[in-house]
Amino acid sequence: MIAIQTKYIPASNTRGSRIKAWASNGFSVTIPYPHQFSFEVCHFQAVKALIEKHNLDWNIENMRYGGTDNGYVFCFANSIVEENRQ
User: Fold this and answer.
1) How far apart are CA 4 and CA 44, in angstroms?
2) N or C: at which end does the chain have fewer Cβ atoms within 10 angstroms?
3) How large is the C-alpha radius of gyration of the chain?
């Protein structure tokens, strides 16, 4: 299953702050920072924009996330590792 990474991009002299979301399949999107949401929800908005932009049929209803140095990584709830123990 694909994980989606996000990162915060601070404002510059020419552009406002943004959030970029990308996946290992090469898909990416950058959105203006949605100040009305909490930090993690802002990053999830970028995930939703990625799904919409690329017309992906991915169920993001139960995604899990974790923090990184630059942002977050979102993955799917059904992406689990099952280890055979004997």
Assistant:
1) 10
2) C
3) 14
